[in-house]
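In the lab's daily routine, each protein ends up as an entry in a very long ledger. A line of letters takes care of the sequence, but it says nothing directly about the fold. The three-dimensional part falls to structure tokens, numbers that each stand for a local backbone shape. The outcome of that step, for a single protein, is printed below.
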Amino acid sequence: MDDLGNDPGLIDRFLEMLAAEAGAARNTIAAYRSDLCLASQVAGGRLAAADAALVAEVADGWRDLSRATVARKSAALRRFYAFLADEGHRADDAGEHLPRPGAGRSFPKVLGRAEVDALFATVAERVARVPPAPLDLRLSALMELLYGSGLRATELVSLPRAALAADRPYLILKGKGGRERLVPLSDRARAATAAWRAHVPAESPFLFPSGKGHLSRVRLFQLVRALGTAAGIPPDRISPHVLRHAFATHLLEGGADLRALQAMLGHASIATTEIYTHVDSARLVELVNARHPLNDPALVDRSGRRA
């Protein structure tokens, strides 16, 4: 939580993400900025680090406001805290302590398998050129790590050049608060990053350098959206975060253990993983019908009654 005392900086980063990745309108950004800055003032500049009591105190000041205004303010803070949790600034989601005057929380967008296949087919077509362009190799590595390992956008663009080793099928990432997690790397991701790494200057500290630093989150978003357009996916349906969500959803649909998924995603709370992964309800019904002990045919006698 080393950055949590910097409300203005974190609010700016959140709004930048909102504009770039969610495509939020200018009026929405302005309203969210006003709501967050006012809430920060009430919280004494400690909005990002607020505990349950302080969050409740901030929300208590909305008692006399209209339902619509409370819904907007609550949505602004809820998304802000979700951003802090997803980026590893907080181990919890303080938005759980906010009022919910409107409808329940919606699930994040997710891509279908066919759409993911179209994305990677477009990448493969570019990389197949002889010789492949270095920037296409970079795009291939970025996509394999986004969808293949579920990295957060910030984690991906700031990966150290030395983070990947030829003899190690995983990454060890250190997030906020010094928390470490192991991120498995598929053979495809290792091959793609190795091909790109050959074009990264040996003196670069980053795997994806740009200028004097590393690739920005906004530029990553632009690259992903442009690839989506080339693959026939509407721009408002794709972003780095959508690919991270697709990673989680498709693994879970394939039978991945929720606790293992929590570790790979870097969620401090299993509740965050449960909300984030968005399991298909039809699959849940199928799972109950197939695995629940009361559905064992041996327990039913010929008359159809339980034995």
In short: The mean pLDDT is 81. The chain has two domains: 7-97, 113-282. The CA atoms of residues 10 and 51 lie 17 Å apart. Residues 113-282 form a domain with the hpI Integrase; Chain A fold (CATH 1.10.443.10).
